[in-house]
Specification:
33% of the residues lie in helices and 27% in strands. It has 347 residues and is α/β, with parallel strands linked by helices. The strands form three sheets. Strands 1, 2, 8, 9, 10, 11, 17 and 18 form an eight-stranded mixed β-sheet that branches. A hairpin with a 3-residue loop joins strand 9 and strand 10. Bound molecules: flavin-adenine dinucleotide.
């Protein structure tokens, strides 16, 4: 059976991964089709935390709503201040990020179709709105519930569960909260934006324990006296089960590829990097994806740390052992050198 249209590259999903990939392909004058199931590019359940490494990808830090050169890390009742000379984290509204990335794309080369959910994957075509779109290369940028990933038969066994409220109250400081008795191996956050604040928590664990995470979060909110009744509860998963990037003429990038950190849940930066690298590989088959190797190296360190936390958590259900370990580790923030190293590793 033939195809209705043919493109050299079809990208499924217009999140940061897909848009970044298209932008890089555009530089090489490739003709690309992006298929996005939502009616608008950008909006996504996300706390919108950004690390300033996005500079490495040519983004100006001005895209951030707020930049922070200090962050408070609360470890089971102990406060540690992480202070840097320059900003190292910031926040961004996901719709703004999506729209800004969309505006960089030239419609003469990049054909982007919203409200176009891909419903079926074939070896050289995808099915969308009753049509078959043929491709030479397929890029899966369709997030944590990726259809292309399922087509390739890759399971997703490692993922984080996250919940957040977006509240109208303003907070001035970006804060993280680790407390194993409430969040297990995960953490809660307060991420201030210009007109609202994301207050949420996440845990990398078995989905059957979702109710427990909600329970811990509610307890923490009431302990801190944070009111969320005027905010909307949202939730989502973050796939961090990386099982490869290139599968013949198909690439898995961003959350579809499991590129997010298994410790912090940071997924925007890895999505951008993997999108750029997939495009470079499509443009030049002999390109060596060394930036992928670098981010996978950092990801492995994050996951080793997570495994250590899981071990402490499994040895003591009350969370005391893990809290003691976290408090001890956080002593490192008293040292300027170790703080700098931590910023390099996590931000
Ligand atoms: C509550 C929460 C908080 C988070 N906070 C942060 C944070 O502070 N910082 C951070 O770095 N990361 C955070 N993340 C993770 C981050 O949101 C993701 O890692 C990031 O969005 C991944 O980008 P992506 O382009 O791979 O996928 P997505 O942003 O998920 O984009 C995938 C796109 O594909 C589209 N799509 C899906 N299926 C189809 C289909 N069949 N056909 C067509 N289109 C399809 C979707 O509509 C979507 O637009 C958070 C996640 C959650 C859930």
């Amino acid at each position: 059976m033939g195809v209705d249209e043919f493109y050299e590259v079809v990208i499924v999903g217009a999140g940061p991964a897909g848009l970044m990939c298209a932008y890089e392909l555009q530089k090489a004058k490739k003709r690309v089709l992006i298929l996005e199931k939502n009616s608008e590019v950008g909006p996504k359940v996300c706390a919108g935390g950004l690390t300033t490494k996005i500079k490495n990808l040519g983004f100006s830090l001005e895209i951030a709503e707020i930049l922070f050169s200090s962050v408070i890390v609360n470890v089971a009742g102990v406060q540690r201040f992480i202070v840097n000379q320059e900003p190292f984290v910031g926040t961004i509204e996901r719709k703004e990020l999506g729209q800004m990335m969309l505006q960089r794309l030239d419609p003469k080369l990049i054909d982007i179709r919203v409200s176009h959910p891909v419903v079926k994957i074939g070896d050289d075509y995808v099915e969308v709105m009753g049509q078959r779109m043929g491709y030479k290369h397929l890029v899966a940028a369709d997030g944590s519930n990726s259809l292309v990933r399922s087509y390739l038969g890759l399971p997703t066994k490692k993922f984080g569960l996250t919940i957040q409220y977006l509240v109208p109250q303003k907070f001035s400081t970006l804060e993280l909260f680790f407390d194993a008795s409430l969040f297990g191996c995960g953490y809660a956050w307060i991420f201030p934006h210009q007109n609202y604040t994301s207050i949420g928590c996440g845990q990398f664990m078995d989905p059957r324990h979702g109710a427990k995470l909600r329970e811990g979060f509610d307890r923490w909110l009431s302990l801190r006296g944070i009111r969320v009744d005027d905010g909307e509860l949202q939730g989502g998963i973050i796939n961090f089960d990386y099982r490869g990037f290139e599968f013949g003429n198909k690439f898995l990038i961003g959350d579809a590829g499991g590129f997010a950190s298994g410790f912090t849940g940071e997924g925007i930066y890895p999505a951008l990097v993997s999108g750029q690298e997939a495009a470079r590989k499509i443009i030049n088959q002999s390109y060596r994806t060394k930036v992928i190797t670098e981010i996978l190296h950092i990801k492995r360190i994050h996951e080793a740390l997570f495994s250590l936390c899981s071990l402490f958590s499994s040895l003591d259900n009350s969370g005391k052992l893990l809290n003691n370990f976290l408090r001890f580790t956080s002593l490192g923030f008293r040292s300027k050198i170790l703080t700098k190293k931590a910023i390099q590793l996590f931000c």
